[in-house]
Structures are given as C-alpha cells and as structure tokens.
Amino acid sequence: MNKFKLSRSGPYLVMAPGMILLLLFAIYPTIFLFKISFQEYSPISIEKPFVGLSNYIQVFQDQSFWNSLKITIIFVLSTVSLEFFIGLFLSIVLHQLGKGQKIFQSLILLPIAMAPTIVGLMFRFMMNDQYGVFNYFAESLGFSRISWLSDPQLALPALILTDVWQWTPFMMIILLAGLKGIPSDPYEAAKIDGATASQTFFYVTIPLLSKIIYIALLLRTIDAFRIYDTIYMMTKGGPINVTSTLSWIVYDKGFKFLDFGYGAALSVVMLILVVTLLMLFLRKVDLFNVEGKS
What we know:
The protein contains twelve helices and no strands. The termini are far apart. Helix 3 runs antiparallel to helix 9, helix 7 (about 155-180) crosses helix 9 (about 195-225) and helix 11 packs antiparallel against helix 12 (about 260-285). The protein is about 70% helix and about 0% strand. It has one domain (about 45-285): MetI-like (MetI-like fold, Orthogonal Bundle). It is mainly alpha-helical.
C-alpha cells in the first residue's frame, strides 16, 4: 500500500522543484508587475499610492508609446520576413548537400551561439564611421564614409541587418529539420506525374512544411518583439528615438526615470499585445491538428 502511494506521488515530487522555481521566477514577478502597474511606484519614495488605471491611460496618451509601437512593428516585420526567406533558401541548399553539410551547418550556426550583447558590440565597432570595417569596404568601392548608427535613416536598417545576421541560422535550422522530416513518397509521386522543380516546391514541399514554417515564424516573431540587448549595445534608442522599440521605452521609463508604475503598465500592455498575437496565430493555425490540412 505504501509503495502504491509512493508511486502515485512520485511524479509530483519530481516536478516540485521545477514548479517552485517557476512560481518564484515567473508567476510571482508577473503578479507583482500587474500590482505595481496600478500604483505610483518609485524606489525613491516610501509611499506607493494606488492610482487605478491612470498609468494605462498615460500609456495610450503618450506619443512615445505609439512611436515605439510603430518602430517595433517595422522591425519585427522586416527581420522575420528576411530571416524566413534567407533561412528557407539556406535550409534547401544544405538539404541538397551531401558531403560537407555538417561543416557548413556548423559554420552557419555560429551567430546564434553568441550572446546578443556581444553581437551588438561587434556590429557597433564594425559600423563605426571612423574605423569600422563596413566603411573600409565602402571606401574601397569608391563610396564616402557612412554614419550607420548616427544617421536617423540608417540606424534602424543597421539594427535589422544585425538581427538578421544573428537569427537567420535559427530559422534555417528549424526549416532544415522540417525538410529532413518530409517523406520521399510525395516527391516520387510528383516526379511520376511530371511536376517541375518549382511545382514540386510550391505544391509539395511548402504544404508539407507549413506547420514547421508557422512554428518558426511564431517563435521568431515573439523573440523579435522583445529585442533589447542589441539596441542597448548599438544605438541606445537613438538617434532621435528612431530605434526606440517597446522594450527600450519600458527600460527608459521604468529604470532610467525610476517610474516603475508607468514602466510596469507599459510592460503589461506589451505582454497583452504579444499574448493577443499568439492567440490570433494559434486560432488561425491549428498547430496541434496533425491529421488536419497542412
């Protein structure tokens, strides 16, 4: 009898440490975030009065919020689109390779092994208008020096380029795994029917790869939405706020100006936007319906 009880409680005992850590480092901070978003919360003030929805009203009246939302949307759409198409191309090329696939795959995956802060610092040096390698090649080709990170028209594209360089391999490896999981039977049937390479790609490969594509796009969209490290190392939200994304203004308002209540309200709004995007995506695409249409 004791052994039976022990066996039934065993899974809960195994899960307990992880659940405790989840409670301490995820659930409690989220509850605390919601709590202080309704307060005028500052670490330099003893009193933290309840202010109701005033922080949220201030968010939607703040022009910097709408500007950051626009910049975030541009950044996410640009990076995820470029990473998907380049990653798809690389995954197809690697899938066709025989010898040397492992070597090329390892080399291409190097950027995602680096911390975003290191990547941001590296690209900041390479894009320096005085001694950066980008300007060295520009001058070698006969162009004048370019202020990559101080020009309002180039700062955001420079960030997009940096993100694409680092995270395209992530998209590639997911799509490559999906390609390797496609059985050979549909391709043999398409070949017998006389389908061309482009017809096989659009009518066989893409439909069979659609679930993997959706998952890759979802993961990268959520991750790109909360970019912060690279911005901190490269532009710090400038010049003139053209790279100030939602994550950056949360830091700027909450930690730089010590307005934790307003920063928490911004974080909650950002969380709601991401969760809404996730729910719309999952409603549109049934990722768990394996037997459904691809």
